[in-house]
């Protein structure tokens, strides 16, 4: 049973009709007292609450009622309905524990989708809440290529399993190289949207002047360089999932534009006056601390609350060192096939030693280290010495190739190295980032800084 709380009878009736047509049962309440009564009388599974239901415009009464609901029925998700003008009120509501907020006038499909997500999520939370510390069975999901069964990793996979089928927006946080993109793809592969596109966008690589054209597309002639029509990423992701990587790098004026499409699910193609509607699940990732960015005013608080209904934190590799042997084994097995060296193996002491290493670049760094050590060592059984040699060799080789002191400054060297790597990898940004030990976001920033042309590989 869904409880609709609004003092406006027209709103109550239309929401109730919409939900009934979609197969839900509803009851409604016109004021807080009646709302709390209904909550006692019925088994309520979801509440839709209009924040401005009171005659006062501050919305305080709505917030008070929300707090009361959270106290009496903490497991029941609440969806707020708010006006654009009261967006700060919606943020307050989300902080106070509301599940989602929808703007007035609402789009029926959007409201229904939020209802489905809220119900799906609370059901799966209830289901996984049963029984002592039960972990998901890997074989029930598509977790291909995701290695590790440390407690930290299992917790991540449990969350992915629980939330994949819902449409909840997910924010994946963690240091560079911890597998954020990999987890985003796992959420998609295990979702109901898996037969629709998965569109990856590296926001770190998109300048604010190009943001709209990249994300929403443009019509031929919309601006000087618009020689042909261009389809935007949101359109490509229609019915599917959009993965917004490096969201922490998004500039303020682009944040407003992104917020609007996430909020209203509508946008306009540049050069066209028609409003388009998009239905997409949003997964974001960042290695920045967004809360800090919100506090220092460089990331919009309302956008932050819009994207992080669910937060998945990927632990750094040093906090799940027990996964290292499995990861090494996985990479060695891949390399056996690539190089036709079926006897490749890593000795026990080396495995132990690897587990004590700090790996600031996390799994990406471990993977690079294993690959390069295999390439450099002629022996099939890799020992600590081989890995050490790789580390020293790395430094020595670099030493031999350095230009004379004074010939170049650090920035010039960096630029030259990036250009060489781009040439070597034929502008494949992902490969270049891997070889240079950078995250893609960092590499994109450098490419822009040095004006090095690149094709966005996403
Ligand atoms: N659990 C894992 N099992 C196997 N390989 C992994 C795992 N996690 C990450 N990797 C590998 O490590 C590399 C980095 O992963 P990924 O690109 O997903 O990290 P990221 O956190 O998105 O990095 P960045 O912040 O730099 O964009 C990839 O080659 C990926 O295949």
Question: Please, could you describe this protein's structure?
Answer:
It contains 19 helices and 16 strands. Helix 17 (410-424) crosses helix 18. The chain has helices spanning 9-21, 32-41, 60-72, 87-95, 108-129, 151-163, 180-189, 211-216, 233-236, 252-264, 290-295, 301-307, 324-339, 348-355, 362-376, 384-401, 410-424, 429-436, 440-449, and strands at 2-5, 26-29, 46-50, 78-83, 100-104, 170-173, 198-202, 217-218, 230-231, 241-245, 266-268, 275-277, 281-286, 310-313, 345-346, 381-382. The chain has four domains: 2-129, Response regulator (Rossmann fold); 138-313, Rossmann fold, CATH 3.40.50; 317-401, Helicase, Ruva Protein, domain 3; 410-449, Arc Repressor Mutant, subunit A, CATH 1.10.10. The longest helix is centred in the first third of the chain and has 22 residues, at 108-129. The mean pLDDT is 86. Adenosine-5'-triphosphate is lined by residues 145-148, 174, 176-182, 287, 327, 363-364, 367, 439-440.
Radius of gyration: 26 Å
Distinct ligand kinds: adenosine-5'-triphosphate
Strand content: 5-15%
Catalogue the unreliable spans.
Answer: none
Strand order of the largest sheet: 2-1-3-4-5
CATH topology of the largest domain: Rossmann fold
Protein name: DNA-binding transcriptional response regulator, NtrC family, contains REC, AAA-type ATPase, and a Fis-type DNA-binding domains
Modified residues (4-aspartylphosphate): 50
GO molecular function: ATP binding; sequence-specific DNA binding
Keywords: ATP-binding, DNA-binding, Nucleotide-binding, Phosphoprotein, Transcription, Transcription regulation
């Amino acid at each position: 049973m869904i409880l609709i709380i609004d003092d406006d009878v027209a709103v109550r009736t239309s929401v109730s009709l919409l939900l009934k047509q979609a197969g839900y049962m509803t009851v409604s309440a016109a004021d807080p007292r009646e709302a709390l009564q209904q909550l006692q009388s019925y088994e309520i599974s979801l509440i839709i609450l209009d924040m401005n239901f009171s005659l006062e415009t501050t919305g305080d009464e709505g917030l008070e009622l929300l707090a009361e609901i959270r106290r009496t029925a903490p497991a029941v998700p609440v969806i707020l309905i708010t006006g654009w003008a009261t967006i700060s009120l919606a943020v307050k509501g989300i902080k106070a524990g509301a599940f989602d907020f929808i703007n007035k006038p609402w789009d029926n499909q959007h409201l229904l989708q939020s209802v489905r997500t809220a119900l799906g999520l609370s059901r799966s939370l209830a289901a996984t809440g049963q029984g002592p510390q039960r972990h998901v069975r890997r074989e029930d999901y598509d977790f291909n290529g995701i290695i590790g069964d440390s407690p930290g990793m299992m917790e991540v996979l449990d969350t992915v399993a629980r939330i994949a089928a819902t449409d909840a927006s997910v924010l994946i946080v963690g240091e560079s190289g911890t597998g954020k993109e990999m987890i985003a793809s796992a959420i998609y592969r295990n979702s109901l949207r898996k037969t629709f596109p998965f569109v990856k966008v590296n926001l770190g690589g998109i300048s604010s002047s190009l943001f709209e054209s990249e994300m929403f597309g443009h019509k031929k002639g919309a601006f000087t360089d618009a020689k042909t029509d261009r389809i935007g990423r949101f359109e490509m992701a229609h019915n599917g999932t959009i993965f917004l990587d490096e969201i922490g790098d998004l500039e303020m004026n682009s944040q407003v534009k992104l917020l609007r499409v996430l909020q209203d699910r509508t946008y306009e193609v540049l050069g066209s006056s028609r409003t388009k509607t998009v239905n997409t699940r949003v997964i974001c990732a960042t290695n920045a601390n967004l809360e800090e960015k919100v506090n220092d005013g460089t990331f919009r608080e309302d956008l932050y609350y819009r994207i992080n209904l669910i937060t998945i934190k990927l632990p750094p590799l040093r906090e799940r060192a027990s996964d290292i042997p499995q990861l090494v084994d996985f990479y060695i097995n891949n390399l056996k096939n690539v190089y036709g060296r079926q006897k490749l193996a890593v000795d026990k002491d080396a495995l132990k030693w690897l587990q004590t290493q700090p790996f600031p670049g996390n799994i990406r760094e471990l993977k690079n280290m294993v690959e390069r050590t295999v390439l450099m060592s002629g022996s099939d059984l890799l020992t600590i010495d081989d890995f050490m040699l790789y580390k020293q060799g790395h430094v020595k080789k670099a030493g031999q190739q350095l230009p004379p002191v004074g010939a170049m400054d650090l920035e010039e060297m960096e630029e030259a190295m990036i250009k060489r790597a781009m040439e070597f990898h034929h502008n494949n940004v992902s490969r270049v980032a891997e070889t240079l030990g950078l995250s893609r976001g960092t590499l994109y920033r450098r490419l822009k800084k040095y004006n090095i042309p690149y094709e966005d590989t996403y």
